[in-house]
């Protein structure tokens, strides 16, 4: 098992509650902190990412803007259903700059991770980048 960045693990965004054509969900995983996914208002907002294979995730790092409260859930099946709670975090407001937060997932095995933004500091929130400390479980 090699420690990898989330982009090298075949990551895809498979669900997003909002979709703005100028700021699509795929921007969260393109590795560029200047691009982003933006909500279209209202809470909760959520998105689900899928790994190419079962993956052990020790933590995720999220670069975001105006996110106040975030929950992370995991799934270990082939389809994105029946999620289990893993962690939640209250993020601090950072006026005029990105919020960078590392969230420990304690070595959770997952095929999918669901991120639920339950509240924000404004009507609209943005996620610029997701990365992870993760290891593929397939040899």
Which terms would index this structure?
Heat shock protein, alpha-crystallin-related, b11; Jelly Rolls; IFT25; 139 residues; mainly beta
Describe the structure.
With 139 residues, this protein is mainly beta. The protein has a single domain, classed as Galactose-binding domain-like (Jelly Rolls, Sandwich). 0% of the residues lie in helices and 57% in strands.
CATH topology: Jelly Rolls
Mean pLDDT figure = 89
Distance between the termini: 7 Å
- The CATH superfamily is Galactose-binding domain-like
CATH architectural group: Sandwich
Roughly how much helix do the residues carry, as a percent range?
Answer: under 10%
Q: What is the number of strand segments?
A: 8
Query: SSE order, as H and E?
Result: EEEEEEEE
As residue ranges, the low-confidence spans are: none
Taken as a percent bin, the fraction of beta residues is over 45%
In CATH's first tier, which class applies?
Mainly Beta
Rg measurement, Å: 14 Å
Q: Helical region count?
A: 0
Biggest sheet overview: 8 strands, antiparallel
Protein name: Heat shock protein, alpha-crystallin-related, b11
Organism: Hippocampus comes
GO cellular component, one term: centrosome
InterPro entries: FA58C (IPR000421), Galactose-bd-like_sf (IPR008979), IFT25 (IPR033558)
């Amino acid at each position: 098992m090699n420690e990898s960045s989330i982009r090298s693990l075949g990551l895809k965004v498979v669900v997003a509650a909002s979709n703005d054509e100028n700021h699509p969900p795929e921007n969260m995983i393109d590795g560029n902190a200047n691009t982003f996914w933006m909500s279209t208002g209202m809470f909760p907002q959520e998105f689900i990412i899928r790994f190419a294979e079962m993956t052990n995730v020790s933590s995720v790092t999220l670069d975001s803007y105006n996110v106040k409260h975030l929950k992370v859930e995991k799934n270990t099946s082939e389809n994105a259903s029946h999620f289990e709670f893993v962690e939640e975090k209250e993020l601090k407001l950072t006026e005029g700059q990105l919020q960078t937060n590392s969230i420990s997932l304690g070595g959770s095995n997952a095929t999918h991770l669901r991120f639920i933004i339950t509240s924000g500091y404004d009507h609209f929130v943005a996620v610029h980048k997701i990365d992870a400390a993760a290891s593929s479980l397939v040899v």
